[in-house]
Design goal:
This protein is α+β, with helices and mostly antiparallel strands and 290 residues long. The chain contains three helices and twelve strands. The chain folds into two domains: 51 residues; 220 residues, Umud Fragment, subunit A, CATH 2.10.109. A hairpin with a 2-residue loop joins strand 5 and strand 6. It starts with a helix and ends with a helix. The N terminus is likely disordered.
């Protein structure tokens, strides 16, 4: 072997030796930055939960079979800042002081469980609180809601001449429980008590599992006849994300489209079209410049 060969071999070993510390340095840099990345991810999760989207765990069977026990849904917390709540939508709301809890959440038994529950609740992936409810909106302010016509719920929007009979194929174990503006303690609806008039700023909500849902009907003797304040609504449940074999979008049933005023149905699409026009114009300008 010549001296030139030895020099080349020596340079190669030197490069390998020099490369090794660099690799360790990069690895060390990643682990030093990891806590910072975790904190950033946690803060982003808090912001998303607080303002945009939150995951909710279904703790009871009151919405079967649309939502099953232990399903997880995503709730849009921003949508009602831009439009009104629509009939047929599934909403999560705070029922504190107005609804009786449907399920009891066992308290943590040790410090580790308390910490884990606090973290999971903070980022929106833990079990819901006892004050959180999920129901379907049946009546909005001004509606007169009643049961039953041929065993079906009716909704008469404000200003409408006739009530609309809802066709609800998604309802499970319908008990067809009558409800009306009967007085406290009355077991039956007296003649002329044609349903419940939903007050301004409130909603009439019902579970899809009609035979096992502590919804507006169960609280009809309250001062507000079981209606829920609109400002207590956390957001709209719009998709099931877990388990994967049940993942699907939670759309508004067709029967509610007849009850919705045309302007309410068309407004989101009109706003979307108006928002899209500037983007189309910008895209054309960029094409001309290129």
């Amino acid at each position: 072997m010549t001296s030139d060969d030895r020099a080349i071999d020596g340079d190669g070993d030197g490069e390998a030796a020099a490369a090794t510390p660099g690799k360790h340095a990069k690895g060390g840099s990643f682990f030093r930055e990891l806590p910072f990345l975790v904190v950033i991810a946690f803060l982003l999760a808090l912001l998303i939960k607080a303002f945009l989207i939150q995951a909710f765990y279904i703790p009871s069977g009151s919405m079967q079979q649309t939502l099953e026990l232990r399903d997880r849904v995503l709730v849009n917390k921003l949508v009602y800042d831009f439009r009104d709540i629509h009939r047929g939508e599934i909403v999560v709301f705070n029922g504190l002081d107005s609804f009786t809890p449907e399920t009891e959440i066992a308290p943590p038994t040790n410090g580790v469980q308390r910490v884990l529950r606090a973290i999971s609740s903070a980022v929106g992936v833990g079990a819901p609180g006892e004050k959180d409810f999920i129901k379907r909106v049946i009546g909005v302010p001004g509606d007169r809601v009643a049961c039953c016509v041929d065993g079906k719920v009716t909704v008469q929007p404000e200003g409408a001449d006739q009530p609309i009979v809802l066709d609800e194929p998604y309802v499970f174990e319908d008990d067809r429980m009558p409800f009306c503006s009967a007085g406290p303690g009355e077991s039956a609806c007296p003649p002329g008590a044609e349903g419940v008039l939903v007050p301004e700023g409130r909603l009439w909500v019902m579970g899809d599992h009609r035979g096992s849902s502590s919804d507006s009907r169960a609280h009809i003797e309250n001062a507000d006849q079981g209606t829920v304040p609109q400002d207590k609504v956390i957001g709209r449940a719009f998709v099931i994300v877990w388990p994967l074999d049940r993942a699907r979008v939670l759309s508004v049933p067709e029967t509610f489209n007849a009850a919705l005023p045309a302007i309410a149905v068309g407004t989101p699409y009109a706003l979307g079209l108006l928002a899209a026009l500037p983007l189309v114009g910008l895209k054309r300008r960029l094409r001309r410049r290129s």
